[in-house]
Amino acid sequence: MLTTVERALDLLLPPNCAGCGALGAPCCRDCLAVWEAPGPVPRGPAAAAVPAVYALARYRGTARRLVLAYKERGRRDLAAPLGAALAAALPGLPEIRAAPDEAWWLVPVPSRKPAARLRGGQHVLRLARACAATLAAAGHPARVAPALALSSRARDAVGLDRAQRAANLTGRLRLEPRGLPPPATPVILLDDVITTGATASLCGRILSENGFPVTVALALTAAG
Fold it and tell me: Are the CB atoms for 76 and 120 separated by under 8 Å?
C-alpha cells in the first residue's frame, strides 16, 4: 500500500515502467504481458514435498529487469502488479486446493534478515500479500502465512549449485511459529526466482514434515 508521501510523489513525478522506462505506471501494459504468455509452465525439478513447481516466465529480458528492479533496486511499487500476476495464474493450476476454511494459504519463501533489511522488508512476503489481496477481490479467499524463517548464518545463494544451495540452507531454514496457518492446512509456496529448485524443495519438506502439505509452488521466474 502506498503511503501519503508516495502518493504525493506520484503526482509530482509519475512513475516509470521498470521494464522499459515508459512513463505512467510501475509496469506498463506491454511489459505486464511477459507474465501472461505462455502462462504458468512446469519448472523442475519437482520433489516429493513439492509435487508441482511452476513459473510465469524465464529469468531473462523484461521479466528479469522487473524482478531485479523490485527486489534489488527499491521499486516496491512493483509489488502490486507482480502480486497480481501471481494471483492471475494461481486459479488455473490443477494441483491447487483450498484449506478446510475454503481459503488458499500462501507461504512466501523467506530471505535472510540482512538482505531483507536492505530491501525494505521481506520482498516475497510483500508479493504474497499483494497476491492475496488480488485473489480476495476476485472472489478467491486467500490468506498469507509467513510460516518460514531463514537464519542470518545462511550465505548469499548467488552462484551456488543445487547441492551447495541445499547445504547452505540445511539447519538454517525453520518454521516461524507466529506465522503458521491452522494445523494440517494445505499451502501454496510463492517465490520470485526458482534457480535450482533446492530452496523450494527444502521449504516444502520442512512444511510437509510439520503437517502443512505443499500442493504447488509458483514463482515469477525460473532460471534456464
Answer: yes
